[in-house]
Amino acid sequence: MDAEQVQHGPKEAGYSSDGEKYRPYIDCLCGFSTGRCINWMDAGEVFDDHLRDVGLGD
Ligand SMILES: [Zn+2]
């Protein structure tokens, strides 16, 4: 394993509240976060887009 290489993958997923509604989010190992999404499908798509951006998606 190359320690210098940035890893990508789901690090943490959960719900974040703005004080009114809970919204799902997914954090990547590299520090990327989908932020608060409308639903899990949306969070998954944003995360997939990130993986594609870094060359890991199809
Ligand atoms: Zn990443």
Question: What features would you describe in this structure?
Answer:
It contains one helix and two strands, in the order ββα. It is of the alpha+beta class and about 60 residues long. The chain has a domain at about 20-50. The chain has a two-stranded antiparallel sheet. The radius of gyration is 12 Å and the shape is elongated. It binds zinc ion. The site of zinc ion has 6 residues, from loops.
Number of continuous helical runs: 1
What is the percentage of strand-forming residues?
25-35%
| Poorly predicted segments | none
Distance between the termini: 23 Å
Number of strands: 2
Helix/strand-derived class? alpha+beta
Instruction: Tell me the helix content.
Output: 10-25%
Largest sheet: 2 strands, antiparallel
Overview features:
single chain, 58 residues, alpha+beta, two-stranded antiparallel sheet, 1 helix, binds zinc ion
Offer a quick outline of the entry.
The protein is α+β, with helices and mostly antiparallel strands and 58 residues long. The protein is 24% helix and 26% strand. A two-stranded antiparallel sheet has the order 1-2.
SSE blueprint and pairings:
Blueprint: E1 10-17, E2 22-28, H1 40-53
Antiparallel strand pairs: 1-2
The protein binds zinc ion (ZN).
